[in-house]
Amino acid sequence: MRFAIAFAATLVALPAAASGGLSCQAEDDRVRLTVESGMTRGMGAPLFNFRGRLDVVNGEVRDVLRSTRFEREHVPQYWLDADGLKLRLYRETESGPHAYVEAAIIAGFDAETEELNGEYSIVIYDVGEDDAAEARTVELSGPVSCFVE
Asked: Would you give per-residue pLDDT tens digits along the chain (149 residues)?
């Protein structure tokens, strides 16, 4: 009986030791960016329960592009190792004229704070609502802070 209880306790404890979390945040006068995800500690540290949100706060883009939500399928590239974090997000509009939002986070480990500090860069490409309008690209960048557990 003691063996069965010990075995069950080991099984319950394994998932907690095998997973962690990732979060990033940036906020300035142009952008609010948040990213949160679970990740495993196995090979490649796959992401799960990923969610992110980008809000462009100063009106530089059309309303349809002002707020973008990201899910796991919008993460084409992700890298986390001893050097830091590299995360790329990409999402196209689902209807209407073609437009996309691409965000990149590149952050390195800070040994004193155990945080990841770096830069975000965002490219918003928009052909506009009018077919005759010229395509427009807005580029934004600034500091980002991330945390990995």
From this structure: 443 333 334 334 444 457 889 999 999 999 999 999 999 877 666 899 999 999 999 878 888 899 999 999 999 999 988 889 999 999 999 887 889 999 999 999 988 877 899 999 999 999 877 666 678 899 999 999 999 88
User: DSSP secondary-structure letter at 130?
Assistant: S
Instruction: Show contacts of 123-128: CB within 8 Å, 24+ apart.
Output: 124/56, 124/60, 124/61, 124/65, 124/99, 124/100, 125/99, 125/100, 126/61, 126/62, 126/65, 126/97, 126/99, 127/97, 127/98, 127/99, 128/62, 128/97
**Buried/exposed 103-113: b ≥16 CB within 10 Å, e otherwise:** bbbbbbbeeee
